[in-house]
Amino acid sequence: LSHSVNSKLTTLCPRLDAWLRGGVPTRSVTEIAGEAGSAKTQLALQLLIAAQLPREMGGLDGAAVYVHTEGRAPLTRLKQLVASHPAVAAFVEAKKKSEGADFDLMRGVYVAETLDDPDGLWTALVSVASVLRETPRDDGRAKKKRVRLLVVDSVSSPFREEDASRANGAFSRARVLGRVAALLREYAHRHDIAVVVTNHVVDAFGN
Questions:
Q1: Whole-number pLDDT of residue 42
Q2: Contact 175/10 with Cβ under 8 angstroms?
Q3: Which label site among 105, 141, 173, 206 has the fewest CB atoms less than 10 Å from its CB?
Q4: What does each C-alpha distance from 119 to 63, 82, 176, 179, 188 come to in angstroms?
Q5: φ, ψ for residue 30 (rounded to 5)?
Q6: What average pLDDT score do residues 21-48 get?
Q7: Do residues 149 and 104 lie in contact, with contact meaning Cβ atoms separated by under 8 Å?
Q8: Which of 37-41, 93-97, 100-104, 146-150 is most confident?
Q9: Can you list the positions of beta strands (E) in 35-98?
Q10: Phi/psi at 82 (nearest 5 deg)?
Q11: What is the pTM of this model?
Q12: Does residue 44 contact residue 32 with C-beta atoms inside 8 Å?
């Protein structure tokens, strides 16, 4: 445990890593907030890849869970990132030579697509517990590694603005969000993982 507590996960962007003093920390919940089109999902996908890299490359040498709440998960974009990032592509090629041509970095990403509502998000996050408890094992083709990263993209999407306009809507939303935040913090500390959530930011104009 002493080797992994408070480890840092590279973002695959040197400038961001420098700003974060080494990357995204484990045993913490990190929020990526921004307006639509500000590359929140792009950064989340980079982290899913980075988590599987060895520690000497800034990774966590583990698997990752991706909870996606907005339609179909962008797996095609994830594959493109694996192929286009020079360091990652070189790592994959080296793995194919040492472990076999069927090595696929995508096997280390567990995807959970949720219903676009608070109950769907809560159910998906609760189900993640079973994956986090799994111990590493050899499945005959490649060693299944322990999960070291959980990404929720996005945590705010299931909580639509119209819910707040109904009676007690804002209170209900805050209560469920509080439960979600508490569960994510528990996962981060109990399983020694990095937890990353994306969150939408919108502009509000007054009269």
A1: 95
A2: no
A3: 206
A4: 26, 32, 9, 11, 21
A5: -110, 130
A6: 94
A7: no
A8: 146-150
A9: 63-68
A10: -60, -40
A11: 0.88
A12: yes
